[in-house]
Amino acid sequence: MPTLLALEHLHLAYDTARGLRTVIPDLNLQLERGQIGCLLGASGCGKSTVLRAIAGFEPVRGGRIVLEGRVLSSPQQQVAPELRRVGMMFQDYALFPHMTVAGNVGFGLRRASPQERAARVGELLELVGLSHAQDSYPHELSGGQQQRVALARALILDPPLLLRDEPAAGLDPSSSDDFCALVRELRAALGLTVIMVT
Hints:
Elements: E1 3-16, E2 19-32, E3 36-39, H1 47-55, E4 62-67, E5 70-73, E6 86-89, H2 101-105, H3 114-127, H4 143-154, E7 161-165, H5 173-190, E8 193-197
Helix pairs in contact: 3-4
């Protein structure tokens, strides 16, 4: 199968008061469509920074990030996060507390008509088993349900790539197992490629 995502000699670093601090010196990774990749390592070793760079939230100091044959990041160019077609699930879910479940999931479809947005939100809430909760607010949901809302929001624009930062954080083992099974089902059904950090 053709490569969906390629990280080629990726170099990531932060500006500090003492100068440039390298976090990732030279990372190479390739994933084919439908594969699951996992970045493992100790806390602070740069795993989440790699996800943030793929999503477009961190600049690349060297090398490049290529998705479906298109260069997303290099020292010379940086495609904006909203133009990358990459779904990102943050460790803390990053749900908007003042918005309903439907509002959170549909947030990325601001340019769609109300009818199109409602149809797509309904479709995704059914996929994650939360059709009954579309008018609820995040604080009214369990941690596992909030994670499903975050997943639906990450999939709203039908991305080929899903990034998951510490997917099991804050969940009990049973909820974590259920969520992982759901992601595997959706990966197979939607043809998703997934990278997770743990």
